[in-house]
TrEMBL record:
Residues 3-177 form the Ketoreductase domain. Keywords: Oxidoreductase. It comes from Sphingomonas kyeonggiensis. SUPFAM superfamilies: NAD(P)-binding Rossmann-fold domains. Belongs to the short-chain dehydrogenases/reductases (SDR) family. The keyword Oxidoreductase applies. This is NAD(P)-dependent dehydrogenase (Short-subunit alcohol dehydrogenase family). One of its GO terms (molecular function) is oxidoreductase activity. InterPro entries: KR_dom (IPR057326), NAD(P)-bd_dom_sf (IPR036291), SDR_fam (IPR002347). PANTHER family: OXIDOREDUCTASE SADH-RELATED, RETINOL DEHYDROGENASE-RELATED.
Amino acid sequence: MAKAAFITGGASGIGLAVAKSLAADGWLVGLADVNAAGLEAAKAEVDGAETYLMDVRDRDAWKAALADFAGKSGGRLDFLFNNAGIAVGGQLETMSDSDIDRGLSININGVVHGARAAHDLLKATPGSAMIITSSAAGISGSAGMSVYAAGKFAMRGFAEALNAEWGHEGIYVGSLMPSFIDTPLLNHVTQDSNRNVRESVTAAGLEITPVSEVVKTVRHMLDIRRDVHTRVGKTAHRLWFMQRWLPGTLRKLQGRAFK
C-alpha cells in the first residue's frame, strides 16, 4: 500500500508544494483547505489527490475528513502536515476582535484539533510523523505581529510536548520554522500599513526564500526524524542565533521592524 499524507492548507503555498513532491514519489495525498476553488485547481496539479473542503476550526470536519481518507488509504496515515494558518498583523490595540479571534483559533485551535483527530491513525501506522508549521515568528516576536507570534510560539511548544508524548508510540513530531517564503501569504496587507508583507520584507532588506527550500526541508525532516524544530531561510537562522547570543540587540531590532 502506498504511503499516505494528509495536508491542511493544501490548496496553495507550502502545503501544495509538499503535496506535489510526495505525490510524485507515489504517495496518496489528501488535500484539505477552506478554499473550494483553490482545492479544485490543486487537485489537477497533484496526481491522484483526494480533496477535502474543510475549516480546521471544526472538530467534526476533521474527524469526517480523516475517516474518509483512511478508508481510501487502507487505514494508513504516514504523515500529517498540520500546516494550515493565516497571516494576521497590525498593532494589537488597532486590531479588531474578529481578526484576533480568527487568527488565534485557526493558528492554534485548528492545529490542536488536527493532532487529536489524527492521533489514532498515526499511532496505527509504523514510522508515522506529524509536522506542524510554526514560523520564524515563533523564534522572536516583532512589532506589529503580536497575535501571529502568539500562535506560532504556541505551536513551537505544542510540537515539543507532543514529541515527548508520542515519541514512545513511534510517532515523530516536529515543527517547521520558515522565515519569509515565496507563497501567496506574502501578498497579505497587514493592518496599519498600505504595503503587503512582500513589500515590507523587501523594504527591510530581508530575503524571500523559494518554496522549494521548504519542500526539501520537510522531506529531510521525514527522513531523519530527529530535531523537534527545523528552521528554513536565512532570517530564521539569524533570529535563532541572535535570540540565543544577542537577545538585547534583537529586541531593539524587532522594535523597529516594519516601521
